[in-house]
Amino acid sequence: MRISSKIIHKGLLGLINLAFFIPLNPAYSESSKLKLNEPVTVAVRKFKNFAGDFAENGVIEGANGEKIRVGFWKPSFEIKLAEVLTNELANTGHFTVVERNNLYEVFEEQAISGIQKNLTKAKYIVIASLSDYIPNTAGSRSNSDGRILIFRAGNDRTQVDTYVAVDVRVINTSTGTIALSRTIEGTTSSVAKADRSGLALGLIDTTSEKKSYETTSATRALRAALIKVVDYLDCHLYLKDECIAEFEAEDEKRKNSTEGTLNLF
Question: What domains, with CATH codes, occur in the chain?
Answer without folding.
Answer: 38-258 (3.40.50.10610)
